[in-house]
């Protein structure tokens, strides 16, 4: 469907055509008219489905003349990288609007707050922020939220989870009671629906798009834990992958695996929440430009992050939460491209990896055949009893929750 039929202004539709955007995606077709009508919404759609434009275009169109007391559109995101990516997108969409001069401000932790405070002296129309740094700006009297007309929680399931609960409650108490609220997510665990209901008005739209699943070939390779990195090097040598994202569980593992790859002559770098923001931005830029072939990351890279031309995702270690598997592998196979997702499952893993992956399979309703590669056969394979037993480490610890909250800034 063309954008003209969705209620967007003729000037904006002309600008979209000039930018090469002729047809709306399913989530844009469903969500844009609802938001233009001023309704609240809970929007669920797969990664890479165009959710950012689906809320950005109608909400930006509805903005009128700047209000000096503070932003009128507030977009909250759980990670620094995602905040940067969404802000870039919003600035691009704002540049297509017939009313010039809309200012999009960006704030996230891990860097000095002073430049962000300086940037807000002239006011802003749109505030894109991680929760922690937004509260820092409020504590420094850098902005107010009493003029907010529309609130977007992007990756809402993450923002409403335990790790952000206290920050979200403080922010919510400062927002106007009368506002438009939009919750956006790729996955919808039962807890999200329960938490979403009190935030949405009674006439809120529920948009749930189950479009054609992304073209991602999933593989599971059984191996011993000590063989994961040699197996990764083997795959990098024999698969036609030019750009790869490898997920691990900890900062130490990210740096250790990337160092091993670099020593083997493979351009690799680590990405984790304890890097400075400057280092994180530099690493991402190097991957996107092709100067690095492999990014070894913690789950700070699991949500919303777009790396163009990402051929494969490798789960060197499985995610703690089964839902995060969908977010991880959704970094590849985007915009109609083919992608590969490979998971290492180790019987000698302390977290009962086979059992954990069976839960992942159950959640996504798909069984993935197990493989063993010559030269990397595991010494032991999980028995059926082990495979169907309890899942150790399934629930995040207090330390995990704190780390997740800190990674959001």
Category from helices, strands and their pairing: alpha/beta
First-residue to last-residue Cα separation = 38 Å
Share of β-strand residues: 15-25%
Which blocks of ≥5 consecutive residues have pLDDT under 50? 390-394
Helix content: 25-40%
CATH topology of the largest domain: Rossmann fold
Assign the CATH superfamily of the largest domain.
P-loop containing nucleotide triphosphate hydrolases
The number of helical segments is 16
Shape: globular
Mean pLDDT over the residues: 85
* CATH secondary-structure class of the largest domain: Alpha Beta
Taking all Cα atoms into account, the compactness measure Rg is: 22 Å
CATH architecture of the largest domain: 3-Layer(aba) Sandwich
Q: Could you give the order of strands across the largest sheet?
A: 3-4-2-5-6-1-7
Explain the layout of strands and helices.
Layout: H1 10-18, H2 26-36, E1 41-44, H3 51-62, E2 73-76, H4 80-94, E3 104-107, H5 114-119, E4 126-129, H6 131-139, E5 150-154, H7 156-159, H8 165-174, E6 180-185, H9 190-196, E7 205-208, E8 216-222, H10 228-238, E9 244-247, H11 251-263, E10 268-271, H12 277-289, E11 294-297, E12 312-315, H13 322-329, E13 339-345, H14 353-364, E14 370-371, H15 384-387, H16 398-407
Parallel strand pairs: 1-6, 1-7, 2-4, 2-5, 3-4, 5-6, 8-13, 8-14, 9-11, 9-12, 10-11, 12-13
Helix pairs in contact: 2-3, 3-4, 6-8, 13-14
Describe the protein in words.
Helix 3 (51-62) crosses helix 4. Strand 12, helix 13 (322-329) and strand 13 (339-345) form a beta-alpha-beta unit. This protein has 16 helices and 14 strands. The relative contact order is 0.13. It has helices at residues 10-18, 26-36, 51-62, 80-94, 114-119, 131-139, 156-159, 165-174, 190-196, 228-238, 251-263, 277-289, 322-329, 353-364, 384-387, 398-407; strands at residues 41-44, 73-76, 104-107, 126-129, 150-154, 180-185, 205-208, 216-222, 244-247, 268-271, 294-297, 312-315, 339-345, 370-371. The two termini are 38 Å apart. It has two domains: 3-208, P-loop containing nucleotide triphosphate hydrolases (Rossmann fold, 3-Layer(aba) Sandwich), CATH 3.40.50.300; 216-407, 3-Layer(aba) Sandwich (Rossmann fold). The protein is α/β, with parallel strands linked by helices. The protein has a seven-stranded parallel beta sheet, with helices on both faces.
């Amino acid at each position: 469907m063309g954008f003209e039929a969705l209620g967007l202004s003729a000037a904006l539709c002309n600008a979209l055509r000039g930018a090469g955007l002729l047809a709306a995606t399913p989530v844009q077709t469903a969500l844009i008219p609802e938001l233009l009508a001023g309704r609240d919404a809970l929007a669920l759609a797969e990664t890479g489905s165009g959710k950012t434009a689906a809320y950005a275009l109608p909400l930006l169109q509805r903005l009128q003349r700047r209000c000096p007391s503070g932003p009128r559109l507030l977009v909250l995101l759980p990670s620094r990288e995602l905040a940067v990516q969404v802000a870039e997108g919003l600035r691009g969409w704002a540049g297509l609007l017939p009313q010039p001069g809309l200012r999009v401000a960006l704030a996230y932790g891990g860097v000095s707050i002073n430049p962000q405070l300086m940037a807000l002296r002239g006011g802003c129309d749109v505030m894109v922020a991680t929760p922690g740094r937004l509260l820092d700006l409020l504590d420094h009297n850098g902005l107010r939220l009493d003029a907010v007309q529309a609130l977007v929680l992007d990756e809402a399931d993450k923002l409403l989870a335990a790790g952000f609960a206290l920050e979200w409650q403080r922010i919510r108490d400062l927002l106007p009671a009368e506002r438009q609220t939009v919750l956006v997510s790729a996955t919808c665990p039962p807890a999200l629906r329960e938490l979403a209901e009190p935030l949405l008005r009674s006439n809120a739209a529920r948009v749930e798009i189950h479009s054609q699943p992304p073209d991602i070939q999933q593989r599971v390779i059984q191996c011993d834990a000590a063989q994961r990195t040699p197996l990764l090097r083997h795959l990098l040598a024999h698969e036609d992958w030019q750009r790869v994202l490898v997920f691990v569980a900890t900062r130490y593992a990210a740096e250790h695996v990337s160092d091993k790859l670099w020593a083997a002559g493979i351009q690799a770098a680590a990405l984790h929440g304890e890097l400075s923001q400057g280092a994180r931005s530099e690493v991402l830029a190097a991957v996107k430009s092709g100067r690095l072939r492999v990014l070894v990351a913690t789950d700070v890279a699991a949500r919303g992050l777009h790396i163009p031309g990402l051929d494969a995702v490798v789960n060197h270690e499985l995610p703690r939460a089964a839902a995060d598997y969908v977010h991880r592998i959704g970094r590849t196979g985007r915009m109609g491209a083919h992608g590969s997702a490979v998971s290492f499952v180790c019987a000698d893993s302390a977290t009962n990896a086979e059992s954990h992956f069976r839960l992942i399979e159950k959640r996504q309703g798909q069984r993935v055949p197990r493989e063993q590669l010559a030269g990397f056969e595991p010494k032991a394979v999980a028995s059926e009893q082990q495979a169907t037993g309890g899942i150790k480490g399934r629930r995040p610890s207090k330390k995990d929750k704190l780390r997740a909250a800190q990674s959001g800034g």
